[in-house]
Amino acid sequence: MKPMPTVAQNTWEFLRDPMITPTGFREYDARWKYPDAINLPGVTALGMGLGTQMIEAGIDPVISVGNDYRDYSLTIKNALMIGLMQAGIHVKDIGPALSPMAYFSQFHLDVPAVAMVTASHNPNGWTGVKMGFQRPLTHGPDEMNRLREIVLNGEQVAREGGKIERVDGVFEAYLDDLCGDFKMSRKLKVVCATGNGTAAAFGPKVLERIGVEVVHSHTELDYTFPHYNPNPEAMEMLHDMSASVTASGADFALGFDGDGDRCGVVDDEGEEIFADKVGVIMARDFAKLHPNAVFVADVKSTGIYASDPELKKYGATTDYWKTGHSHMKRRVNELGALAGFEKSGHYFLAEPIGRGYDCGMRVAVELCKLMDRNPDMSMSDLRRALPVTYSSPTMSPYCADTEKYKVLERIVAKLETLAENGASLGGQKITGIVTVNGARVMLENGGWGLVRASSNTPNLVVVCESPESDAELRSIFSDLDAVIRTEELVGDYDQTL
Question: Phi then psi for 434, rounded to 5 degrees?
């Protein structure tokens, strides 16, 4: 079952022959435009390849499978499950789900593998699969490369014994796992923003379960996403959340992405708190409860984790690591860290707080518990208690999947040359460049600018931070962007300063 890279639509062949564009295999998951870059026979070939990989890995041939609330996701999931079944896999279909609910099902149903059909925060027209064989971890680059080889080379093996079983009750068990018997002792009014995505079916119920008064914001399921694409890293969503807080007088707002594994926060004053800063707030609280804790932050995140006196007071240490939910999960697991925080809004809360995978609903519950432990503090109080820095949102200029890594390599080389020559960004001398994931350019006063390749979209990713002023932040970005603009293959930003 060797797929073709292109098959013309509206032909007999398109219904019969598998088509998969190779660039859809990403660093740690798979994403394609449907049906432009993958067709249904291609999805079946993918499922059969994933099943073959399971057998090759020597794990029990049982997998949990879920799907998000896009109008085509059920069709994609059915095609995937057929392929898995053809490979001899026992498929446990948990129905419509959040990605973290699918990860939870591995524990709840005691199965080794998971596949979640979702394009996460990508716009409509995209589909994809998040998958893993070793709970709470998901596929990393090595596993994705092997899956790519199996599928594109037609190495799938048909086996007997495959079947599909529908499993009910997973959400109820997931809700119990998240909330237990915890109830708020403090009154909280919280905006629950879901952008009409999958989290609309789950987020309000989670918050109501722990005794929170919920203000609904776009919590009607609607796979056309009529208001905005649910992505709590996008300023469009954060501004809408801010308006809801102002209109309702809520204590804060929580916003969830399309598959519920990320969470964004707006405080009681309508201020958007970027997720890496929310992570510092949570880390401070966790450090008090768990002295000498180890945390992991991604390279897009604020430098406060390393410099914060409050975290140092409780013996906390932070490791900066590669961006990407699979990379971060693995690093948290490898270090035995208490938690990992990503600027995109992925949080990885490990034992005894969570199960180690990224779960926006778990973050929502833990933030409410944090507020319960600090009854005299508002979310804005907690924000103001942090050291002041000036941070950009995540900004993503277009760069084709086939070109972005080569373009990034050239940009990194140019930045390294600037550093060697004693150059500056934003008027601050470059003191070093961290190249664990793209290039994080470190500056003399503690500011920095990052450029990396997106792992899941045809984009570069740019983030900057200044400890001094908004003006310096803009200057850092301007100077970094000037280097990026030397590459003609880099296009427009999705958002900017």
Answer: -90, 120
